[in-house]
Amino acid sequence: MLIAVMLLLTVSEPLLAQNPTATPGTKAAASRFYLKAGGGYFFSVFPGQFPDVGPYPPHDVRSTYNPANGQTTTVSDKVLTGSYGEGARGGLSFGWNINRFIALEGTVNYYRSKENLMTRQLTTVQGSDQVAGSIESNGYARAFDFAPGIVMSPGFEKLNPYVRFGMVIPFYGRLHIETDATTSTPVSATVVAQTTIHREEAVHPNITLGFQGALGLTMPVGQRFDVFVETEYRNVPAKSKKKEVTRYEETTRVVNTSNGAVISTQQRGLNDLSTAERNTDYVTTLDAGSNTAIGREGTQTRYKDDNRAANELKSYINIGGLGANAGIRFRF
Question: Is residue 47 part of a domain?
Fold first, then answer.
């Protein structure tokens, strides 16, 4: 049906060009190529549960710690949901008018999602607000994509509505995750080990394809300039391929709580992490041959083989959504 409509509009062009409102001297007939610049904001349409951050599930957990018996009690537990489809997008488009009614358009877009809370665990000493331990991870997506599409319109000279549909081909994208953690571990009655960790990770996606569709309106504001506004829907699923730790800062201070004196300080950096701690390959199934964690030594995680990348289950996110764009178009 769509192909038939396109053929009808193409064949009808010479006939409609005889109309005085669409003579060869008009802007619509003369402007074969155009350049667009615009941007907008998108909102999440189908939020879902966030992927795990290493061993930590996408939960907001509040707990209390009883120093008398060492027991930890969960006070509340909330599943964290959302989407990486909410955020700002800007793009540059180049188009070619086949005729007054049909154009081919290609757009290079840059997208940056809003920051999302992915996991949080807060443990306080029972009966007080003193923090015994905490961990919080926030993530955001960045991506560049190429979006080829077909634009169809009635070809009006003034206010001209249009519909656009096509594909989305991401050629660069990362899910960036930043984690901050603190722990306070008793060493003796008056000595504690206080550890702070800042960790940054980048998740690389597999190659994927998405879809786009838009309804818009153009209006001339000059001899060769138009403004446009549109509402657009995008569906761009992405699944994880691998992950790498790009920044790691860990400091442990052994402190005498009676006078606040620092007894000793130890630090770990990015180069102190094992290959398995720094790199992760995502798989669809974990089995006996997978390189999974087998325990911890202090803050260091041990794997079956510390000298090769760890394995975790694949995660899925969507960087598509429903939004509005606006910008300007220059006709050559």
Answer: yes
